[in-house]
Design a protein that fits this description.
Elements (H helix, E strand, L loop, with lengths): L1 H16 L5 H8 L3 H8 L1 H20 L2 H19 L5 H14 L4 H11 L2 H34 L1 H22 L19 H9 L2 H31 L4 H30 L6 H22 L3 H17 L1 H12 L4 H35 L3 H9 L3 H14 L7
Helix pairs in contact: 1-5, 1-8, 1-9, 3-16, 4-6, 4-16, 5-6, 5-7, 5-9, 7-8, 7-16, 8-9, 8-12, 8-15, 11-15, 11-16, 11-17, 11-18, 12-14, 12-15, 13-14, 13-15, 13-18, 16-17
Length: 407
């Protein structure tokens, strides 16, 4: 079950991150600005994601989570492949809107299934593998394989081939993925009796949930903004090729994300039985430690030095993400798990994915008259500032956790 959910999450992030290495070829073909590239990679994905997230979560909380995952996986894989047929920038933007509308059917139901199978003292490690492990693998395939295909055969073929594995995986998930509600008993069993209004009201009164959700959203502004534009930064500022970006940097950063997440999940599982506040402390510590590391990375002038420092920065940032999700699972209550994660990802995607690339692209365009080709470097330096309020919010989450636990 965990292996299949890991692959589903990998496919989810693969379809998102492949766009990061295709931005410069798309820019060259359609002649658009960095602001429009930020719109394509941010708002065009997150707008309908935000609209669709809550009704899909409600469906998953009430029904068969396997069905939701299979349906969503089939839909976004098909739309990703069709992106390769777009004849204009706005056709491509419309297709990315469609991808965003169906991707909420993956991660929230997958986390809910995982929480039914893993007890709290093992949950953070499993979440680390599912979230950051899947993200790292998706990044690896998107940047390395997607970058190679784009360099050899063009960005259109990269989109077409990116959609094919998801369709095969959907058939595997349909056959082998199990919905445990009828077989495991409590906590998996039991109909959802709360109304949507009551569910939202109860979650709204969980201060730890609110702090974690807003902290993750602000974290996402930086995370998505820098993830989308770092390949373009390396091409423009460090003067490397797309092949160099996709191979050396792509492999290093995927390893950094995976190792950081697994370390953070292990640490959270080890410390949480003693003090549940460690979830918030670990998330805050990861953000705080990565601030100076990203600053050093963006100041590097050689590709090899940049990769080494950025590896440490990415690993530090990845440490806190599993703990932030584990904190939400600790306080949300079993019958509203999918809704809680969907709301958290709603803000993460709408604010983080929606605004992060757009802000980074707009700042780059704003800096261009003053600094020319270095504008993207200055933009990413500015984006680091978002990690400061994220750190504070995760600390506030830690303080609120002990009084709000719910099985």
């Amino acid at each position: 079950m965990l292996a299949i959910l890991f692959l589903v999450t990998t496919s989810n992030y693969f379809d998102y991150f492949i766009l990061s290495v295709l931005l410069d070829p798309i820019k060259n073909e359609f002649g658009v600005s960095d602001t429009l590239l930020g719109l394509l990679s941010g708002v065009c994905f997150s707008a309908l994601y935000a609209v669709a997230a809550l009704p899909i979560a409600r469906w998953a909380d009430r029904g068969n989570r396997r069905t939701v995952i299979v349906w969503a996986l089939t839909a976004w894989s098909t739309l990703t492949a069709i992106c390769g047929l777009a004849q204009s920038f706005w056709q491509l933007a419309a297709l990315r809107l469609g991808v965003g509308a169906v991707e909420p059917g993956a991660v929230p139901p997958a986390q809910s299934l995982l929480a039914d199978y893993f007890p709290p003292e093992r949950r953070a490690s499993a979440l680390a593998l599912l979230t950051q492990g899947g993200s790292a693998a998706g990044w690896l395939f998107g940047v390395v394989i997607g970058g190679y295909i784009a360099a050899e055969y063009g960005w259109r073929m990269a989109f077409v081939l990116a959609g094919a594995p998801g369709l095969l995986l959907a058939m595997v998930a349909r056959v082998f993925l199990a919905e445990p509600r009828r077989s495991l008993g409590f906590p998996a069993a039991g109909p959802l009796r709360e109304t949507l209004t009551e569910t939202c009201r109860r979650l709204r009164h969980k201060h730890s949930f609110l702090f974690a959700s807003v902290g993750l959203a602000i974290y996402g502004i930086f995370g998505f903004g820098i993830a989308i534009f770092l390949p373009s930064f390396m091409i423009r500022t460090l003067h490397v090729t797309l092949e160099q970006v996709s191979l050396s940097w792509g492999l290093a950063i995927s390893a950094a994300n995976l190792l950081g997440a697994l370390a953070g999940g292990w640490l959270a599982d080890r410390l949480s039985p003693r003090d549940v506040r460690c979830y918030g402390w670990i998330a805050a510590g990861g953000c705080a430690a990565s601030i100076p590391l990203y600053g050093l990375a963006l100041a590097c002038e050689r590709m090899s030095t940049f990769i080494a420092v950025d590896f440490l920065a990415e690993a530090s940032l990845a440490i806190g993400l599993p703990a932030s999700f584990a904190a939400v699972h600790a306080v949300c209550g079993n019958q509203r798990r999918v809704m809680a994660i969907a709301i958290m990802l709603f803000t993460f995607t709408l604010v983080g994915s929606g605004l992060g690339p757009l802000i980074a692209g707009a700042l780059s365009d704003a800096y261009t008259p003053a600094v020319g080709r270095a504008s993207l470097q200055y933009s990413l330096f500015t984006m680091i500032g978002f990690l400061i309020p994220a750190t504070v919010l995760f600390l506030l989450c830690a303080r609120a956790l002990p009084g709000e636990l719910e099985s």
